[in-house]
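Example 3.
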Amino acid sequence: MSQEPTKQPNPKHWANDYGPALFRYALARVSDRGVAEELVQETFLAALKSFDQFEGQSTVQTWLIGILRHKLLDHFRSQFKRQAVEIPMEEDDPERDLFDTRGRWKHPPAQWGSDPHVALQSREFRQVLNDCLGRISPEKRAVLLLRTAEGLSSDEICRQLAITPANMWVLMHRARAALRRCLENRWFREKESR
Amino acid sequence: MINCREAARLISRSMDQPLTWREKLALRFHLMLCDWCLRYRAQLLWLDQALKISFPGQPVNKL
């Protein structure tokens, strides 16, 4: 989302001018092409309806992304509502692979280096990160990305998704643990063995 | 004393919310003695930072 097209705010050109950027933004967050496309379409529709309210204080792309973020949040919310998030305490629990019955590490965590910027310069790493994000469940990914990528507070996430703080922390803990494990296995250990 | 599994939970929660003084103390004490949990914490901080960098959203605090 770095370059801002300086096109005229004519809705006829939106799909070409902003479609790809919006699609990438959505896809990175939902990891499902169909859902991402749908969200972008809904964004354009909502934008058309409220175009007269666009005052040009932000750029068109910023304005469209603002709408898309609301659509994304609606999507996450409906996902949570549909599944009435009951978090299974045993099932799908990354802790089981990490710790023995006495709660001690089964394998020592690897050294990841100090600066993520270095790893993120590698296209291969970014691909692995995306794959790993795509592997964690949609609820966990939603909570994790709302917290880290969107910078929402815990309270705000609980309020928006109508979940309890306890549920949120379990989801966050498992999301981080699952993503960490995937990156460790697919990137850091691989690198060590190369 | 808390074990590594409990420490890992507290490490994650501390990134979202302030811990109680009792939890803080228990975690600090555990981390003084456990290099692996220290490393785990470094990994989670690394991960959070990596996600923030790779998802350059807009500086909007609220949706």
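The longest helix of chain A spans residues 165-193. The radius of gyration of chain A is 19 Å.
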